[in-house]
Amino acid sequence: DAKTTQPNSMESxxxxxxxxxxxxSTISGTDYIHWYRQLPSQGPEYVIHGLTSNVNNRMxxxxxxxxxxxxxxxxxxxxxxxxxxxxxxLRGSGGSNYKLTFGKGxxxxxxx
Amino acid sequence: DTEVTQTPKHLVMGxxxxxxxxxEQHMGHRAMYWYKQKxxxxxxxxxxxxxxxxxxxxxxxxxxxxxxxxxxxxNLHLHALQPEDSALYxxxxxxQRGSSYNxxxxxPGTRLTVL
Lengths: 112, 115
Hints:
The complex is a heterodimer of chains A (about 110) and B (about 120). In chain A, about 0% of the residues lie in helices and about 45% in strands. Chain A has strands at about 10-15, 20-25, 30-40, 45-50, 55, 60-65, 70-75, 85-90, 105-110. Chain A is globular and about 45 Å long. Chain B has about 120 residues and is mainly beta. Helices cover about 0% and strands about 55% of the residues of chain B. In chain B, strands 2, 4, 5, 6, 9, 10 and 11 form a seven-stranded mixed β-sheet that branches. A four-stranded antiparallel β-sheet of chain B has the order 1-3-8-7, with no helix packed on it. In chain B, strand 7 and strand 8 (about 75-80) form a beta hairpin. The model of chain B has no long low-confidence stretch (mean pLDDT about 95). The interface of A and B includes residues 30, 32, 45 and 91 of A.
């Protein structure tokens, strides 16, 4: 599986935008970029995914670099409820695409 | 109903006990998963069921025995566990198994302590 690299932790203030980076320099052409988050004492929760184009949904936006070697999850206005571990995951079209291979993720702290 | 439920929330068991974890979804999903998450670590896949059949076993010790009685239910039977098996056990489901864009829906997990 192609690997992702994320900062161990980031901090933001409430109601400000947050940009969570992810590097995936060995991504293949058919790998989808997925983001999940895990709030304290809960199971992981799907946030967003994309292949090549930028994506928006009600939770966040995903900006994908033109060469696809990096991506950024954007929370437009952070709330205290967004404090969580954010995982950037690549899912390919090969035999192992059934599973989510979680890396260490980024622990996001949101200050009031 | 877009929820995956897991029972019990917490479980404490001795090394000679037999217990079971239960997972349920009513989203019509045909793939269900068990993940294990140790403290401060990311989740790791244990088993995958596709159309009620075990399709993936990620080299999990036989003291963990999964079962899928029907398309909505997934059990994990535990026997002769070790203290190092203490972890959060997460169940997930997705519309189907082999898709790189299908999201997985996770339950809240069962926190297991083995004494």
